[in-house]
Design a protein that fits this description.
single chain, 475 residues, alpha/beta, eight-stranded mixed β-sheet, 35% helix, binds zinc ion
Length: 475
């Protein structure tokens, strides 16, 4: 890799540098600012600088190494050097081909304290605009408490050590909104105790921030890329995956982000009261497939079902409403006239409720045959959803036999597998019921699980749509 050296400050007395490593292709990429350790007394560039930049460059980051001021320079000189570096990277994002909203900092040991402080102290130092969008902390110095590496704090704080060491113990300073962090350490570290990382991660989780912690049993301080240890070597890839899944980092050439279609069946009231407002917050679309069930059933469970006004309300919020038959009859069991009646009766119900433009249909229980399909076609629907479990090949699939994957019982395995099936032009259609579903417990999804789903889809930067919208976009 070719290196270019930039002086961070115009004042000749400040020798801090940014080493820029050029990457071959010219697509926009996330950036990684590597901050070597050295106890705020030296900068270990040869072990925790260039080799780390090289590894992250292989993983698709555009990489930089920070050569920052250390003792006898004191706080906040190292911090200001790092902020200056991020300012340089962000303000030159266009010429450097960098995504200015996805700049991470990766620090080692005392460099970990420096990297972590960039997000945590940004307000205190008036540097919000120069804060990183994520941090990687390798065996970091965090605490100045009992487990702390006092040498680093003495070098950073000088004469102010006794007065300020508690204030710059970063585990005590974490607040909601600090940048997502990937942290790793070895339990056998005799220089910087693993407790530093435990305290950091604990405070991050308590504050509701995103943090992933990996602790290796064997190994002392300063393992950098692992020096041949196969268990430690994968951490840069894991850090990258963490940013992709938790902080919206995107890499050109990586597998495309998934297109997802959300559908909600059977008209539970919480679809209007809980699901729809949450979808709106995320900017997600969806299709709702209500039905009426039979009169006796409906009377018994009236409290749990959406009213006609609520159905119209969903459409006013911008969601698609489809037809799922009147009484949720298994259509393959009845003659086609009965099929047609079922569909027409619910169409009238929707029209009376003020719901318009109903073009999608969902087969009750996902079952269909040729007769049923022609009844649906005859009724004028352009799209119909089955529960044939595969991704939806929009261009090649019969639009009246759209496959979809039902999710229930908070199954993480089913959810992640389903999302993994999506490919460019081939969204995955998910079928959900009530959140929660008291009437049909076998279809239940809890509020907590549903919120996790939406958070994951959002972090993956998925396009989340209704059925008709996806068809229009991808056909
Ligand atoms: Zn149903």
């Amino acid at each position: 890799m070719k290196k270019e050296v930039v002086r961070l400050w115009s004042a000749p007395a400040i020798e801090s540098e940014l080493h820029i490593y050029s990457c071959k292709n010219d697509m926009v990429r996330p950036a990684m600012l590597v901050i070597p350790g050295g106890g705020y007394r030296q900068v270990c560039e040869s072990t925790e600088g260039y080799p780390i930049a090289k590894r992250f460059a292989e993983l698709g980051f555009r990489c930089f190494v920070l050569i920052y001021r250390v003792a006898p320079h004191r706080f906040p000189a190292p911090q200001l050097d790092a902020y200056k570096a991020i300012e340089y990277i962000r303000s030159n994002a266009e010429s450097l081909n960098i995504d200015p909203d996805h700049i991470a900092a990766c620090g080692f040991s005392a460099g970990g304290h420096l990297a972590a402080s960039l997000s945590i102290l940004a307000d205190e130092l008036g540097q919000q605009q120069n804060a990183p969008n994520g941090v990687v902390l390798a065996y970091p110095v965090i605490s100045s408490g009992k487990c702390g590496h006092q040498g680093s704090f003495r070098n950073l704080l000088g004469k102010e050590y006794a007065k300020l060491k508690k204030h710059y113990s970063l585990d005590r300073r974490i607040v909601p909104g600090n940048a997502p962090a990937f942290v790793w350490h070895t339990a056998g570290d005799t220089v910087v105790n693993v407790e530093n990382s435990l305290l950091f991660a604990g405070s991050m989780w308590k504050a509701g921030n995103k943090c992933e912690l990996r602790v290796h049993q064997i190994g002392n301080h300063g393992l950098a890329l692992g020096y041949g240890r196969k268990d430690i070597a994968p951490w840069p890839q894991m850090a990258k995956d963490f940013f992709v899944h938790n902080a919206g980092f995107r890499f050109p050439g990586d597998k495309k982000t998934a297109d997802v279609v959300l559908t909600f069946d059977d008209a539970t009231k919480n679809q209007f009261e809980f699901v729809a407002p949450l979808l709106k917050q995320y900017g997600f679309g969806a299709t709702f497939f209500p039905c009426n069930f039979d009169a006796r059933w409906r009377e018994k469970y009236a409290d749990t079902l959406m009213t006609p006004q609520q159905l119209a309300g969903l459409q006013k919020m911008g969601f698609e409403i489809g037809n799922h038959t009147d009484s949720h009859l298994t259509l393959t069991d009845v003659p086609s006239e009965k099929c047609e009646q079922e569909i027409a009766a619910f169409q009238k119900y929707l029209n009376d409720a003020g719901v318009e433009n109903v073009t999608s249909f969902a087969y009750p229980c996902g079952v269909y045959n040729d007769e049923v399909v022609s009844a649906v076609k005859k009724a004028g629907f352009t799209l119909a959803r089955t529960t044939d479990r595969s991704a939806w090949d929009v261009k090649n699939c019969d639009p009246l036999k759209i496959p979809a994957i039902p999710l229930a019982l908070d199954s993480q395995a089913e959810f992640y597998k389903a999302i993994d099936m999506a490919r460019p032009g081939k969204p995955v259609v998910l079928v959900l019921h009530g959140v929660p579903d008291i009437v049909h417990p076998h279809c239940n999804i809890s509020e907590k699980f549903f919120m996790m789903m939406l958070e994951y889809l959002s972090a993956l930067n998925c396009r989340v749509m209704g059925l008709a919208e996806a068809y229009k976009l991808l056909k």
